[in-house]
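Changelog entry

Holo records now carry the ligand SMILES as an explicit input line rather than a separate metadata file. Below, a converted record for pyridoxal-5'-phosphate, shown in the new format.
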Amino acid sequence: MNRPERVPVPNNLESFWMPFTANRQFKKDPRLFVKAEGMHYWTSDGRKVLDGTAGLWCCNVGHSRPKVVEAVQRQIAELDYAPAFQMGHPKAFELAARLVNYLPSPLDHVFFTNSGSESVETALKIAIAYQRARGKGTKTRLIGRERGYHGVNFGGISVGGIPNNRKFFGSLLTGVDHIRHTHDLSRNAFTRGEPEYGAEYAEDLERVIALHDASTIAAVIVEPVAGSTGVLIPPKGYLKRLREICDKHDILLIFDEVITGFGRLGTPFAVEYFDVVPDMVTCAKGITSGVIPMGGVFVTKDIYDTFMTGPEHMIELFHGYTYSAHPVACAAALGTLDTYEDEGLLTRGAELAPYWETALHTLKGLPHVIDVRNIGLIGAIELESIPGEPTKRAFTAFLEAYEKGVLIRTTGDIIALSPPLIISKDEIDEIVATLAMVLKNLA
Ligand SMILES: Cc1ncc(COP(=O)(O)O)c(C=O)c1O
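Structure line, unchanged by the conversion:
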C-alpha cells in the first residue's frame, strides 16, 4: 500500500482539551494519526507505526477491515437512526441473539450502551434495582477492588480503585467499599500466565462482608484481568473463590470485561477462560472493534425475568441511552463478529499466547525491568520508577517506542501491550525488539 503524504498539522491545537493526555506536552510535539490499515497506523509526518495496543485495547480485528467498513457504509445509507425507546430495528435483535452465543447460559440477555463507562453504570444500576425488584431493597452497597478501573463516570470511579481517577472528584457515590488488589511482586514477579500465589486475597471479600453485612450488599464488580491499572492477572483460583463467596452471601458478581471480552485471552470472554460464570458481564471496545462507540451488559435470565413483571404496558427498567443499539453501531458490531468468526480471531489468542509469552519474557534482565507478565494476548513490563518522578520512565519509553515505529501504552511505570488479534509472529518480534532497544537506552 502507498505511504500517505505528510499531512499538515493544524495551526491551532489549543481548543481541543484532550482526554487522559498531558495536553501541554502533546501540543508542543503532537502525535497525530491520519490513516490506519490492518496492524498499522500512519502518522501525519508519513511514518508507519505498528499498533501494539489495538488502539486503546479495542481494535481487535485490526484497522479498516473490509466487512466492518462496508457494513457501516451500507447502514448509514439505509437506516441512519431509529429511536431507541419504544421502537426498534432488526439489527439490534440480530446482534443481541448472536452475542449471547459467546457466553454460557444463563447469561442470555444483553442491554446496549455506548461505552465501557456506560456499561458499568448500567450494570451497577441493574444490580441495585434487581435486589429491590426481588424484595431485597436493603441490598444497595457496591463493592469494587483497589486498582480497579471501571471507566470514568461516578459509579465507575466510586467502585474503581485508581487514586488519581477518584481524588479530584469529591465524595463520589456513598455506600461503596473495596477489597484489596492482588498485585504481589514479592511472590509473583516474572510469572508466565496466572500467578501461583494469592488466591487467598479473595478472602478479603469475607472481611468486607463481615463489616457491612451481606444484607446491605448488592454486588461485587471486578475486572477478571485488571487492564488499565497496568495488567494485574488474577492468581490461580482467585476468581472461583470470589464466586463462591458471592454465592454464599447472595451477592451478585459482575465481571467488567470491557478489555477481556472478544478474544483478548484466546476465548470469546474471560468467563470461559477462568471457567467462572458471573451474574453480569460488561463489554464495549471489541464489540465493534472500536469502529463505532458501543457497549453492552449481559445479564442472566433470572435478572431479566425478575424485571418482567407488572402491567405489560409499563416500562420495566427506567434506564437507557438515546444511542443504545444505534443502527450504525449494530452494523459495525455485526461486521466485526463476521470478521471474528471468518478468521477464527476469538480463539487465535490461545494459539499465539505461547509465542507471545516467550517473546515478552526475553525482556527480563533489561535495565529497570522489575516484572514481565502475560496472559492471552496481553502483556506488561513493569519498570522501576525514577525516585521522585513516578510515570516518567515509562512515558519516556512510550515516546521512544513511538519514534521507533511501535505504539505501546503506559500507565504509571508499567508498559501495557494488547495488539490486534491479527498480529503475526514477525510483528510480535518487531514489538519486542523495539522495546528491547528502547529499554536498553532508557535512563
Ligand atoms: C475494565 C474497563 N471498564 C470500563 C472501561 C471504560 O470504557 P470507556 O472508555 O469505553 O468508557 C474501560 C476502559 O479501558 C475498562 O478497561
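Spot-checked after migration. The pocket of pyridoxal-5'-phosphate is lined by residues 57, 115-117, 120, 149-151, 223, 227-228, 256, 258-259, 284 (CB under 6 Å). The mean pLDDT is 97.
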